[in-house]
Design goal:
The chain is mainly α. It is about 75% helix and about 0% strand. The chain contains two helices and no strands. The longest helix is centred in the middle third of the chain and has 28 residues, at about 5-35. The chain is elongated and about 50 Å long. The termini are far apart.
Length: about 60
């Protein structure tokens, strides 16, 4: 049985996704900046940022 999502639910999910992506982007830049801005570590910085962002979501409120 398929569940229909309301338009507001879809918009909320997309907004949350955009917020998470923006957080990862900013955190990745922080890793890049603190790492001495070395060229060639963009994926490493991005993965670190994803991991730290995901760990924030898992913390109980």
């Amino acid at each position: 049985m398929k569940m229909k999502m309301k338009k507001t639910d879809v918009a909320d999910v997309l907004n949350k996704s955009d917020e998470i992506q923006e957080k990862i982007y900013k955190t990745s830049y922080v890793h890049h900046d603190h790492g001495g801005r070395e060229h060639g570590h963009d994926w490493d910085d991005w993965i670190k940022a994803e991991r730290s962002t995901k760990s924030l979501k898992k913390k109980p409120r």
